[in-house]
Amino acid sequence: MKERNRTFKIALGGVCLALTLVFMALGSFVPGVELTLFLIASVFTAVMVIETGAGGACLFYAAASLLGFFVIPGKAGLIPYIFCFGFYPILKYFIESLKNRPLQLAAKTVFFAALLTVGLLFFKGLLASSVNFPDAPVAVLIIAGTAMMLLYDAALTYLIGFYMRRFRNLP
After folding, report:
1. How far apart are CA 115 and CA 64, in angstroms?
2. FRET pair for 44, CA 20 to 30 Å: which of 21, 27, 105, 168?
3. Could you give phi then psi for residue 66, rounded to 5 degrees?
4. What pLDDT score does 129 carry?
5. In tens digits, what is the pLDDT along the chain, a chain of 171 residues?
6. Which of 69, 44, 42 lies closest to 167, judged by CA?
7. Pseudo-torsion of CA 4, 160, 58, 13, nearest 10°?
8. Rounded CA gap, 148 and 146, in Å?
9. How far apart are the C-alpha atoms of 73 and 25, rounded to whole Å?
10. Residues 6+ apart with CB under 8 A from 154
11. Torsion angle in degrees (nearest 10) through CA of 140, 142, 146, 147
12. 21 C-beta neighbours (distance < 10 Å), count
């Protein structure tokens, strides 16, 4: 039984890895829906957290990021996955292990604001060729981006719940 469970986890990891690479590739060159495709790619990391724990999900994230460099033609398109969407489900797992909901929300908000601040201040020049930034003050972009990332978190929570109900048969 133990060997069967291990085989299932390895096979699931391979399927999730292939699907992640497909959605990362689509997200790197399909204009207009990049963030949606990266959201879908991040669901597979969440599945690995559920099925293998944080350790297996970290290994999965590392494999997806590394293989992305070899498989995905537009390397700039990997930046959102590597720096946010790929590891966020793992971070979400740890943040949501805190029992205090306001503390969870505060931790997520601080994380997203810090991530966007670093991205806008340090990576804007790197991304200038592939991303059109609105002509607004950085503070406004950070606040709006944090709100969008909290929506991403809610969508990811919904998709995790769907997975749990549909494939794990949990209420």
Report:
1. 20
2. 105
3. -65, -45
4. 47
5. 566 688 989 999 999 999 999 999 888 777 778 888 888 999 999 999 999 999 999 999 999 999 999 998 877 778 888 888 999 999 999 999 999 999 999 999 999 989 888 877 776 655 544 455 667 777 888 888 889 899 999 999 999 999 999 988 765
6. 44
7. 40
8. 5
9. 7
10. none
11. 10
12. 20
Using CA atoms, how far apart are residues 162 and 171, in angstroms rounded to an integer? 10
Question: What pLDDT, on a 0 to 100 scale, did the predictor assign at position 170?
Answer: 61
Residue 45, sorted as left (phi over 0), alpha (psi -120 to 50) or beta, turns out to be: alpha
Q: If you search the block for the tokens 């946010």, which residue do you land on?
A: 84
Give the C-alpha separation, 51 to 54, whole Å: 9
- Cβ–Cβ under 8 Å, residues 171 and 165: yes
pLDDT of residue 121: 74
Q: What length is written for the chain?
A: 171
The three-point CA angle 157-163-167 to 5° equals 160
d(Cα 86, Cα 124) in Å, to the nearest integer? 20
Return the SS3 of 62: helix
Give me the phi and psi of 132, to 5 degrees please. Answer: -95, 110
